[in-house]
Design goal:
The protein is α/β, with parallel strands linked by helices. It has helices spanning 20-31, 45-55, 71-81, 96-105, 117-128, 136-147, 169-179, 184-191, 195-209, 214-223; strands at 11-16, 36-42, 59-62, 86-91, 109-112, 133-134. It is built from 10 helices and 6 strands, in the order E-H-E-H-E-H-E-H-E-H-E-H-H-H-H-H. It has a 6-stranded parallel beta sheet, sandwiched between helices. One of its GO terms (biological process) is regulation of DNA-templated transcription.
Amino acid sequence: MTEPEVEKKPARVVVADDQTVVREGIVMLLGLLPGVEVIGAAGDGEEAVRLVGELAPDVVLMDLRMPRCDGVEATRRIREQYPGTQVVVLTTYADDESLFPALRAGARGYLTKDAGGEEIVRAVESVLSGEAGLSPSVQRRLLERLSQAEPQPTAVVPTPPVPPDGLTVRETEVLVLIAEGLSNQEIAHRLHVSNATVKTHINNLFAKTGLKDRAQAVRYAYAKGLVRPPAG
């Protein structure tokens, strides 16, 4: 006598998109498909991180360009703070400046918004089984990038193995860029985050280190060996 099959639980999903019509459309679409249960929806990255902490979803479908906290930074926070939740990017953009920062931040899937509902469900199932959930166009872009055989770029920000004084890796990166003389806007562009996110990192690192201004931050970075004086 064969045992009855255990019914597979649907993947619990949070949708994050700042455009109300798009967000509600995705929620409605997924509600018609088996294998997925939408348990929350967020209008920006900050709300997405908060909902993950409250609801512990299996997957977040993450837009990239959102106010307050963009999708790349939200992905990074979710993967650092809630590693049990996977992230699948669902965005209009498939350019290198969007794709690679999102993957480096910890996204396991990447789809463009022309993806159908079944393709979204397949990506969700793929990342939950430990595989990558990438659209065919994104897979082609990755292969093209790898086949270019470009020399490996040097690291943009040399961070120490153990950041000092309880700083996170990202806060240390921001500190180093301050010491290199970059403005908040330039740091935001370099790290592919918003100006508001940079300000948050600066406030946090100042609070942890007791620094009061950028001049003190520069001296602190040199004292801790995070940057070296120019030669000559």
